[in-house]
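Re-run with default settings, no changes from the original entry. Doing this only to confirm the output is reproducible before filing.
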Amino acid sequence: MTFFRSLSFIAGCAICFAGCGKGDSKQHSDYPIRSISFTEVKFTDDFWAPRIKTNQEITIPIALHQCEITGRVDNFRKAAGLTEGYFNTEYPFDDTDIYKILEGASYSIQMFPNPALEAKMDTLIALIQQAQEPDGYLFTARTAGEPGNLHKWVGEKRWEKTPDLSHELYNCGHLYEAAVAHYQATGKRSLLDVAVKSADLLARDFGPDKLTYEPGHQIVEMGLVKLYRVTGKKEYLDLAKFFLDLKGNGRRGAYCQSHKPVTEQDEAVGHAVRAVYMYSGMADVAALTGDSAYQQAIDHIWDNVVSKKYYINGGIGARHHGEAFGDNYELPNHSAYCETCAAIGNVYWNHRQFLNHGEAKYYDVLERTLYNGVISGISLSGDHFFYPNPLEAHGDYTRSEWFGCACCPSNLCRFMASIPGYVYAQKEDQVYVNLYVDSHTEIKTAHQTIALNQKTQYPWDGKINIEIDPQKTATFTLKLRIPGWTRGKPVPSDLYTYLGSEKPGITVSLNGEAIGYEIGADGYMALNRKWNKGDVVSLSLPMEIKRTITNECVEANKGRVSVERGPILYCLESMDNNYNVLKTALADNAPLEHKWEPDLLGGVVTISSNGTKAIPYYAWDNRGKSEMIVWLPRE
């Protein structure tokens, strides 16, 4: 099967990183920790696997249909000369919806093989190949644009409006990410060849003594790094760094993080999606070049976000205007923006922070964002979407079937299918379990393959069994992430705290016998021993109901409390409660009880208190417009 060839090729490129720098003494091999790819993990759980299946069966087909009826696919036909007419959709970045759907479909068919979907992908890729200009340029807003009447964001010359709103480089970034995912999942080079041809053009056009237009909307940096990892072409990595180093002189300042050079930035500002895509690109370049100034900058920015600009639902971006971060501690609830794409980008960034530092606190943020701020963006049925994700609604928010600017639905298409790639990781003889999901993986070390089989009903139950099956008896360290919420830390800062004293209540056993443990400063329980085939580690995390309060500097939440259990945040929704939920209080001494309700909202644990019922935040607005609230008055 060609897939195995592709992985071997990628592994070979990874090995050559240290030596393919052509004299660059700063060349590094990559992140010190290796994430176990989505291609190597199979989900068998009742929470994520059905969502990934729904993504393939419902969300991706809907997105493809919308791309057809809104003219996005026709833009490629017109650029290819197959259909008469001109570019005729609202935004010049509409091409990226096709790319993101292809990326998601690639992830998806790896978990759930689907010949019909793969054939549809082949058809779309053939169309993209035909739309690409001979020198590699691929941008239907120009190629299919009406001469003398181009889209208002598109300049007369290639690339000239890239720093502003043309999104030419943004489109390239999504193309490159889709191409790598497709190649990894199928072994086919069809889309990868398109991406390489495009990236070669960028390398010819941009650089010192050439064009110096900075990307207005970041993501090309991440895409170029992914292409570099696959091809070993160092000019792609160099170009990613070149684009980042152009920041500080941009036309639009803080909005697109160009108010200062990237190494001088220490606060999250501007458009939240652009920001986290840039921080992710910086992390990639830092890992591959050893540029400590890049890493130091994003470490400072990360501290700023988690201590002053992070919502309890895992969202980022306080302001609708500019889809932007607000000032420190500016975290309004009803007007919170918390764009779905920003939550997805925050997962990308925190994953990279973990791969570099190996600390569980980054996964504490990632997990909270994943279970709350990301999946709230899509309905349980997979066919309606939120763009912003507020923490309070007055009957004025509801999910939509689609958007003119469709970045969130197409981003969900690609992200939902990629979640298996976030569960496991490896560093030398250390094997990390970062998320608890009923799943199977086989991790290849230098000496053998280690199979892990995880059995759990997480996030509703904190009991996790992990069967370890090395090919032969071997000594290595199994590192289990102990979530901050089990240890009295809802987030790794003082932005949120729990009311009341917390007892860890964590237990662990090996083959049925309790064993002692320590939780390291990195937030992991490290079990180092000689492992035999069939060994079973049983971990029990206490699923207590928690009351959460906010730092007093956050005006919006003074005198208010929220409720969570495990990684799940809760809210009140009007259809579950026969009174105005916006005026409901939760006293500190009110009893709280949880209950598993298999027939409600796809099966959820609810929390009740004196007749008031709360549901998981991610599941609100699945039964029609409603009032909703997360932060309740304590009196």
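The radius of gyration is 24 Å. Confidence is low (pLDDT under 50) at residues 1-27.
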